[in-house]
Structure prediction request, 231 residues.
Amino acid sequence: MIHWLPRLLLALAYPWLAHWASHGGGDTLAVVALLDLVLVVLVDALLRRRPGAWLALGGAIAALALLHGGVWPRVLLLMPPMLFTGLAAWWFARSLSDPRGALISRIVAGLERTTPAALAPPLRRYTRRLTLAWALVLATLCLVNGALALVAVPDGALALLGWPAPFSVTREQWSLFANLLNYGFVGLFFFAEYRLRRHLFPQRPYRDFIDFLRMMARLGPAFWRGLFARR
Prediction:
């Protein structure tokens, strides 16, 4: 089996499980969605039979079993969309001060088998600005996710604290945005930027969008680990 496939399948399942749990699926499905998220983190180590990973999984299952039947599984489901987009925004923003180059600059350099410093100046400027744009888009999504998590009823943060909210949304409305539309916005921005880049820089090393995705995948695990590693 392709080594990244289990994690990809688990990651793809999470938004749908979380949305289902928030749309009348109940506490049990909320626990299943949270367990799926734990498996996304641990799956590689579990497949390598590392004892620490199996102990962590056992601890997570025990903790979720204790929380089952209460409000906390549903409360915990409010957090991942905000954390995912916030962490991604921080990664993009942090790379703007990285001496190795901005995140998108390094990806484009990897596709062209060169270094960020060796990119043509217009392309280097574009990729740096694009990195900033991604940071702003993801930070905006993080703030919207956080605001909706505060005012969702009946399990939003303000409702649980007994504080009045200036406006409210249903949990189903929050989930539609946080667990589904969130990723749609990211995908739309990704594809729209690809089309813009093809127009501005037509001489690219890939033929079309599918070939672009294939080249991204062929960069390999070591490249992606290094991309997000601390400098």
